[in-house]
Design a protein that fits this description.
With 469 residues, this protein is α+β, with helices and mostly antiparallel strands. The protein has helices spanning 2-12, 49-62, 114-122, 139-145, 152-155, 190-194, 228-239, 253-263, 271-276, 290-305, 317-328, 330-336, 352-365, 390-406, 422-428, 431-444, 459-468; strands spanning 17-18, 42-44, 66-69, 86-89, 96-100, 105-108, 126-127, 162-168, 174-178, 203-210, 212-213, 217-225, 247-252, 279-287, 313-314, 341-343, 369-375, 380-386. Helix 1 packs antiparallel against helix 2. The structure holds flavin-adenine dinucleotide. The site of flavin-adenine dinucleotide has 38 residues, from strand 3, helix 4, strand 10 and helix 12.
Length: 469
């Protein structure tokens, strides 16, 4: 261990190798509800790609596990430290290297936060539109999880915007993938393989992202419905209408009550409507002129009224901003209320009602409370699960995941597997697919040092899976 710390200190400087009491508790966990914190041997803070490369060369030589850390807002324990390993934290690599207004791309270091990038782009009339609920999240972390968020219905997710990467492999080799290119068809797409790999294939040291024009006008429309089935009918119609909404979220009545009460939000919904509403749709429309925005709002109102909407509320800007913020913070509301776990299953969007119907049966069978909201336009359902008994909860989770998969969905739409959901993935996924993923992992990281120690391709899992097949 002394040798490891000495070598790391030579690379980054002693003050950037944190050990023992220097390790702030924040470094010991992410936002995952279901996992205890773990203290690593050291937290290492590199300043540039050369230092990251040297750190990984040393780690490979000494066989020390490495967990990459962005802002640790992840919800699945993917940046929780391995107690026998080191954390590489990218907080010193926070430079926006270039905003290229001709090619409409930005080149950033992985520690740049979404908030920081948005601020820098505003003056150029551009936007990086991927918006997971936590704007302190880093671009490196977003690449790690293939982050989605509310605007995915219009713009897609992180992988739709990452055009190129600089990466460092486990032995320290530095590679570039992609570029400022609108397209490429030159061999396997290594950029896309890294996106969503949760720090298990390589560490990302530079990211080229695609930018979009920043719309000038926006409206947030809140639409109460008498049932989730009504929402499920309204969502495909809205997506297919050509309105191209930026946000299309549903919130069930319990979650709506929780977020409005916790934030003191008053949305002006009449008592009669409130009484009948069992679910709400939030639609954000963006346009480049007030007139076109008004036309779109009227089109939307006609469309949802035909599909059973109880009313249509165009929110004043302040209430709109507060509602979107409150929706983003539903995770914290669930956490404060004592949720034991969360789920972000994705199903084909037309199957949301059927999925939720079956989830309520699962919850009733196991005396669990399961409530939620979600990215309705993407079929990505966020549920908070209240069932303190670990074993019973495991059954609830497995049944929820199995239900989603049977409907053509998958375990995670955007949070990733991390440490928390990996056991379910092993239990439910096709072993042939897991085997292939493990072989990809081996090709990138032959000694299995990258990642939390639980996950696709960690040494133990590779052996376990090979044995079981
Ligand atoms: C209130 C709240 C709301 C949220 N809403 C959403 C949402 O709507 N949509 C959504 O997608 N997510 C959401 N999240 C989850 C979270 O913000 C995302 O997962 C985000 O991408 C994590 O970024 P981070 O910088 O915090 O990464 P971390 O949590 O630090 O790391 C995430 C993963 O990326 C890896 N990683 C980090 N940096 C690098 C690097 N340089 N190279 C290689 N791997 C790296 C880590 O090892 C880990 O596997 C929410 C979280 C909270 C707390």
């Amino acid at each position: 261990m002394t040798k490891l710390l000495d070598l790391l200190s030579e690379v980054v400087g002693t003050q950037y190798v944190l050990t023992g009491g220097e390790i702030n508790p924040d470094y010991t966990h992410d936002e995952c509800l279901d996992l205890d914190p773990q203290v690593p041997i050291a937290v290492v803070l590199p300043a540039d790609t050369t230092e990251v490369s040297d750190i990984l060369r040393i780690a490979a030589e000494l066989q020390v596990p490495v967990v990459a850390r962005g802002s640790a807002t992840g919800l699945s324990g993917a940046s929780r430290p391995n107690p026998n390993g080191i954390v590489v934290s990218f907080e010193r690599m926070q430079k926006i290297l270039e905003i290229d207004t001709d090619n409409h791309v930005a080149v950033v270091q992985p520690g740049v936060s979404l908030e920081q990038l948005d601020f820098a782009l505003a003056g150029h009339g551009l936007v990086y539109p991927v918006s997971p609920g936590q704007l302190s999240a880093s671009l490196g972390g977003n690449v790690g999880t293939n982050a989605g968020g509310m605007r995915a219905v219009r713009y897609g997710v992180t992988r739709n915007h990452v055009l190129g990467l600089e990466i460092v492999l486990a032995g320290g080799q530095v590679l570039r993938t992609g570029g400022k290119l609108a397209k490429t068809s030159t061999g396997y797409d290594l950029t896309q393989l890294i996106v969503g790999s949760e720090g298990t294939l390589a560490l990302v040291t530079e990211i080229i992202v695609r930018l979009q024009p920043r719309p000038s006008d926006a409206a947030t429309v809140l639409i109460p419905f008498p049932s989730l089935e009504h929402i499920t009918a309204a969502v495909p119609a809205t997506v297919g209408s050509g309105l191209n909404p930026t946000i299309l979220e549903y919130i069930d009545v319990v979650s709506m009550a929780a977020i409005t009460t916790s934030s003191g939000l008053e949305l002006g919904i009449s008592p009669e409507v409130k009484e009948k509403a069992l679910a709400y749709l939030i639609v954000v429309i963006e346009q480049n002129s007030p007139e076109r925005l008004q036309q779109d709002i009227e089109h939307l109102a006609d469309l949802v009224e035909d599909r059973g909407a109880l009313d249509v509320y165009v929110l004043p800007p302040k209430a709109a901003e507060e509602l979107i913020t409150a929706r983003e913070n539903t995770f914290y509301v669930a956490k404060a209320l004592g949720a034991d776990d969360i789920v972000d299953v994705v199903v084909p969007r037309a199957n949301i009602a059927s999925f939720l119907h079956q989830v309520s049966k699962v919850a009733a069978e196991h005396s669990a409370i399961v409530v939620g909201c979600g990215h309705a336009g993407d079929g990505n359902v966020h549920l908070a699960v209240f069932q303190p008994d670990h074993e019973v909860r495991h059954k609830v989770m497995i049944d929820i995941f199995r239900t989603g998969m049977t409907l053509g969905g998958s375990i995670s739409g955007e949070h990733g597997l991390g440490t928390a959901k990996y056991e379910y993935f092993l239990e439910l996924e096709d072993p042939a697919k897991i085997g292939l993923m493990n072989r990809i992992k081996l090709a990138f990281d032959p000694s299995g040092i990258l990642g939390t120690g639980v996950g696709v391709g960690t040494a133990g899992q590779i052996e376990g899976k090979e044995d079981s097949r």
